[in-house]
Amino acid sequence: QVQLAESGGELVQAGGSLRLSCAASGRTFSSYVMGWFRQAPGKEREFVAAITWHGGNRYYADFVKGRFTISRDNAKNTVTLQMNNLKPEDTALYCCAASSYNSNWGDPRRYAYWGQGTQVTVSP
């Protein structure tokens, strides 16, 4: 069992930066691939980024490459999403999730545990 809690979302102007954090409970954090997803009103949930168990591999959606960076600290049971050069279309509820699968981390069905999310709003 893993419980996840996100923080760091807020209102920011276009071009600004935010750092989202996800704190996980449990002693098995390093056994999960961690991902970030987002969902805007009226839209489906979409994959943002994922990081493997010890941070050896990172995966990004095309629309965030070069702007967002995912990282994790297994000693602190946290995963972060550094978001730079934010755009109004990045406005969404951002959720972190934990997966015990070893592939296809862009599919939300691969994630068994989800946080409640943190709201990011980017003004023009």
Helix and strand content put the structural class at: mainly beta
What oligomeric state do these chains adopt?
A: single chain
Our estimate of the beta-strand percent is over 45%
What summary fits the major beta sheet? Answer: 7 strands, mixed
Mean pLDDT, as a whole number? Answer: 96
Radius of gyration (CA) equals 13 Å
Instruction: Give the end-to-end Cα distance, rounded to a whole number of Å.
Output: 40 Å
Strand tally is 11
Give start-end ranges of low-pLDDT stretches. none
Helix content: under 10%
H-E string: EEEEEEEEEEE
- What's the total helix number? 0
Map the helices and strands.
Elements: E1 4-7, E2 11-13, E3 18-24, E4 33-39, E5 46-51, E6 58-60, E7 68-73, E8 78-83, E9 92-99, E10 111-114, E11 118-123
Question: What would you say this structure looks like, in words?
Answer:
- 0% of the residues lie in helices and 48% in strands.
- It contains no helices and eleven strands.
- The chain has strands spanning 4-7, 11-13, 18-24, 33-39, 46-51, 58-60, 68-73, 78-83, 92-99, 111-114, 118-123.
- Strand 4 (33-39) and strand 5 (46-51) form a beta hairpin.
